[in-house]
Amino acid sequence: MTPGPADLLLVIDVQVDFLPGGALPVPDGDAVVEPVNALQHRFRHVVLMQDWHPADHVSFADTHPGRAPFETIALPYGPQVLWPRHCVQGSPGAGFAPGLATDRASLVVRKGLDPRVDSYSAFLEADRTTRTGLAGALAERGITRVVLCGLATDFCVLWSALDARAAGFDVWVVADAVRGIDLDGSVAAAWARMEAAGIRRIASAAIA
Ligand code: VGL
Ligand code: ZN
Question: b vs e for 62-96, b when ≥16 Cβ sit within 10 Å of the residue's Cβ?
Fold first, then answer.
């Protein structure tokens, strides 16, 4: 693949709290920084996503007395996995990973700001109704293909890729520039769902 003017690199949640030692560490998560930086030079359009929660966010186990991280609860919009408190607005853990290049991004989009609604997806919050505005911004820039990288394969990358596809974009995921959390086989399940949705998998070496 040779990226052209209608291709966008969408960098998902490469933030301190998702790295080893962070509040919600993705195993080997820091390994994506180098390939993500290299990829950014090959795209004219780069958008960085940032998970950005209020301190009392509904996805935090702390917000629900008696609940523990990684339990699933029922919310009005459906099942919600409870997480350790992470990516609190303005906290060091919400910052981009040290070493992540940010200069080439034209847009930084934050998600998960509503205390009552989570948003794994860069496009559509967990209520499946509230839009982040990203699809409109990409349409205005004439983007037709979205290439995803970042964290985590089985949550924010998965949902962002599925919603990009549902919004009509041609969607690719860079296999060596993502890492997953992997709860009960969720990484393998994520790849299967993406494949079934017509999302393509590519190696960063094949993008030049
Ligand atoms: C994410 C869980 C909670 C992610 C964000 O970036 O994949 N996962 N918040
Ligand atoms: Zn989150």
Answer: eeeeeeeeeeeeeeebeebbbbbbbbbeebebbeb
Which atom of ligand 1 is nearest to 15's Cα? 6
CATH topology (fold) of 7-54+86-206: Rossmann fold (3.40.50)
For residue range 70-98, what is the model confidence (pLDDT) as tens digits?
999 999 999 999 999 999 999 999 999 99
Domain limits, the chain? 7-54+86-206
Its pTM stands at 0.98
pLDDT tens-digit series, residues 123-161? 999 999 999 999 999 999 999 999 999 999 999 999 999
Pocket test for ligand 1, best of 120, 148, 179 (most atoms within 8 A of CB): 120
